Amino acid sequence: MAEPEVEVKVLYDFEGDQESGELTVKEGAILYVTNQNVGDGWWEGRTSSGETGLFPETYVEIIQAPSAPAPSVHVVAPAQTYDYQQQQQPQQSFDEDDAGGYRDRAASWDDTGEWDESGAHDEGPPSLSPGAATGYDGGSTDGAGFDSLRSRDTMRNDSVSIQRSGTVRRNINRFSTFVKSGGEAYLLGETKAKANAGEELGFFQSEEGPRWNYVEPFTLVVTEPTKKSKLKGIKSFIAYTISMSTGSNIVERRYKHFDWLHDRLEEKFTLLSVPPLPDKQYAGRYGEDFIEKRRERLEMWLNRVARHPVISQSSVFQHFLVCRDEKQWKVGKRRAEKDELVGSAFFLTVSMGTDLDVSRGDQEVDQFGRFVKSMDDNMLKLKARCQEHCEQHSGIFTKEYQKIGQVFTKLSETFAMEEKSYARPITEAFGQTGRTYETVAKLYEDQPKNDLLPLLDVIREYLGILSTYPDIVEVHKDSAQKIQQCKKLKEEEKMAEADVTEIVERGSVITASVLSEINHFHSERVVDLKGAMQNFLQAQIAFHEQIIGNLREALGKYDQC
User: Fold this and answer.
1) pTM above 0.85, yes or no
2) From its phi and psi, is residue 100 left (phi > 0), alpha (psi between -120 and 50) or beta?
3) Which helix (H) or strand (E) holds 329?
């Protein structure tokens, strides 16, 4: 007996990952739930237009329960069981992080409780922000404009209170990134941490401005995703093999290890661009295809981090890549979690040098802020167009060419009813034309995986990267304002010149770091988008050449008539 449908109303915009069978829906839309037992917090349903797919159960509310007899509807996530081969195995449950679903920063590393269990999820709809996609979209950046890129709790207040005694008071707004990251404390010389010998970072002056010192690049390969189990098969997970181009060292990591690394990098490099980690998502029906897609996205993320001249050299990243001994892993893990040089304390490791020019830093950073907003807006538009075109390829384009082919085929069958020898070539030619258009239909159906979907992967990655920059720009802006306040105090003889000079010097470190991040972003952008568009256009050319080749072959049949 079929399960009765439940009528629900969408509470938040949700942009699903088409490749993973997810729906894209808008707030207020009505959906009909066809399966509440998908698992991992997902339901399956259909839209009023008949489109079917997956969506997060926390994004909807029930407005009409099924008529009796009806199963009870739970608003909490179903038990997290899952089988990649779509077979029921009641005695085997998969870890949340590896079976799909949502990222869980509180997930434990192993059954000994070695990993921190105290992490908390962000506020808002569980695990997903309204409007966010669960594919490689870098969190909520895919579903909203530039305003959504700014951290939820960045409530900037321009007013800075100055004591009449001439000392600089801390920013009134305790929730700004400038304050929370320790940027204000660093600028005012109040950071307590100390840099160790050998940890110094530096810049060089390029034609474009300050750049991080060059480091030898390396690439990473993520291979052999393998299903493994523990606790005598009760829990299962997917392990990935990671190898480096610079050596023969090979390590094995699970998704929760990637998750831990990302959290550590975000904490340590608050004011650098740490790309968002590909989110977890439902994988139940897609088996090997899903695992392969996650492998590709994790590899893309690792190589993005590996190309950053500062983050790639950090001890925590190197520990993730090379440590193979379990005991040494735990030692390095604890060391990373106790690192004091996190947030703006990181600036204590930065050495300015004498040849850097940061005199135009304020203007350049402000211009970059406008650039990021514009690029984000237009990348979102490009993403929407690419997704729409994918749907047209698998929908209207395929169907129309199939219909054309069917008409020619039927006409060929009609001609075959009169078996005249002199008419046989034209009959065969019409048959060939029908088959040609059906081949063209298949080409249209398959083409997105060759051009549009790879381009969408790059677009999603960059939407995630862009989401990291508004806070960086904001910290620089707050730093510049604080420096101006201090200079004004000096003019009023309320602050010692030596103190102001030290603050200006620390401000130059912040400016040089932000400008280096900006220049690194632009150099990466040029290379990445050049390669993405070359691949896209080459695939487009090959696609149309295939169509032309098939049409020429059909045309040749008429030359034989």
Assistant:
1) no
2) left
3) helix 326-337
